[in-house]
Amino acid sequence: MSQDLILKNIAKHIDLDKEEETFFLSLIKNKEVDKKTLLLKEGQICKYINFVNTGALRAFHVDKTDKEATIMFALQDWWITDMYCFLNAKPAMVYIEAIEDSNILQLSKENLEKLYIKVPKFERFFRILMQNAYTREQLRIIENLTLTAEQRYEHFLLKYPRFAKAVSQKQIASYLGITPEFLSAIRKNKTKR
Amino acid sequence: MSQDLILKNIAKHIDLDKEEETFFLSLIKNKEVDKKTLLLKEGQICKYINFVNTGALRAFHVDKTDKEATIMFALQDWWITDMYCFLNAKPAMVYIEAIEDSNILQLSKENLEKLYIKVPKFERFFRILMQNAYTREQLRIIENLTLTAEQRYEHFLLKYPRFAKAVSQKQIASYLGITPEFLSAIRKNKTKR
DNA sequence: CGTCTATTTGAATGTACTCAAAAGCGGTGG
DNA sequence: CCACCGCTTTTGAGTACATTCAAATAGACG
User: Fold this and answer.
1) Looking at residue B64, what is its pLDDT?
2) pLDDT surpasses 80 at A48
3) pLDDT at A63
């Protein structure tokens, strides 16, 4: 339940003094969740941005035909939320699920606004976070547009070896935008060569 | 060559006083480009973030097999750059091209850093810009993962009617991640019904 | 141990691509 | 003003990539 990790995460981009650290921590809610718990369901208001202190989360969208699309995984030291709905206080389009027993640190929209007012440096912190998220997603789009499923799977393994170990094939398939059956076929072909 | 538009664009998210406006404008470079001019080529250092004052730009990636993937269009009042390379001073992965005669306002990385120091409110402005870009790309990924090409085309027309008028079918196809031939077939099917 | 879910396998199908060729369209120069 | 050029769009046939459905097998967990 230590809060070292989140402070270190913040220190990557901005410097806080003791008082600012204390204020920030006072705004954070600590939450223990078991594997398979849903932190957010479609249609709910997304109140929090979540920092993974320990464990792992997954954000996914479910369409009318019950097809899942994994939007992102978040392992230790990652931030995750349904950003659109968090920012605009709209009903969530995605589910966020614990894929392991996890310890999550939550920052609410209201507290984030307080934080921006009292410690404007956090504008910078979240700017950098958003920049990184944006460029990551942009790269993912390029890959989705130009690569075959097999190539995307290769890239995924190279870029996110931590994810590849932590999550099921079914979930990887839904991140890549293919069926579990086809991912299985891809893996079979790979070993054959 | 007026700078009203960019100031209005900024005023959507933060309030500047006269002095701050003047300082901001002093950092901006004005550029007129003809249709088909490349503002950025793959491999170059991406020095600027571009604001479209008049005209239209397109960012696209070209893979080993010469296949183009359009990353984004930017019409009047939009910001566009190769964000990853702009931020990290890396060689660009994308081309940015004028798809009409355009008037572009450019802000360099160095000047942006100056701006952050002298007018920290801009941290907020670009945070919001990045947030919006991020959530937009995330939505695009969900659509790419769950919808067929025809559905994606429908959404594109609904969401970006301005784009649909300004750009060629070939470019729309490369934004949707399909071949021009297949987009042509989709359009044929649509009218048939 | 039994149950539930994940993964694999294979056949049939559908979606989108490649290649080639024709038709359309816009700009440029004579 | 028209003829020509280059590029975009259309069309169609053949093919490749990826899905669906069903069933068998393997793993995880209480």
Assistant:
1) 83
2) yes
3) 87
Question: Does domain A4-119 bear CATH number 3.40.30.50?
Answer: no
Token pair of B78, please? 């939009």
Q: Which nucleotides of D are covered by protein (CB under 7 A)?
A: 8-13, 17-22
**Model pLDDT, residue A64:** 83
> Which residues of chain A have a CB within 8 Å of the CB of B83?
131, 134-135, 138
- CB neighbour list of residue B22: distance below 8 Å, 6 or more residues apart: none
**What is the pairing mode between strands A68-75 and A56-62?**
antiparallel
Contact A70, A163 (CB under 8 A): no
Q: Compute the distance between CA of residue B175 and CA of residue B169 in angstroms, rounded to an integer.
A: 10
pLDDT value, residue A117: 97
Confidence of residue B158 (pLDDT cuts 50, 70, 90): very high
Q: Is residue B153's pLDDT more than 60?
A: yes
Contacts of residue B16, defined as CB under 8 A and 6 or more positions apart, other chains included, come to B7, B10, B24, B119, B121
For B45-60, write each residue's pLDDT tens digit: 999 999 999 999 999 9
CB contact at 8 A, B59 and B96 = yes
- Which residues of chain A neighbour B126 with C-beta distances below 8 Å? 127, 131
Report pTM.
0.94
Determine the topology of domain B4-120 in CATH.
Answer: Jelly Rolls (2.60.120)
Mutate which of B46, B125, B132, B138 to test chain A, going by most A C-beta atoms within 10 A?
A: B138
* DSSP symbol at B76: T
Q: Which residues of A are less than 8 Å from B135 in CB distance? A: 83-84, 87
CB contact A117 to B (< 8 Å): no
Does pLDDT of A52 surpass 80? yes
Q: How far apart are CA B154 and CA B186, in angstroms?
A: 10
d(CA A138, CA B46): 16
For chain A, domain boundaries: 4-119
Q: Say yes or no to pLDDT of B95 above 70.
A: yes
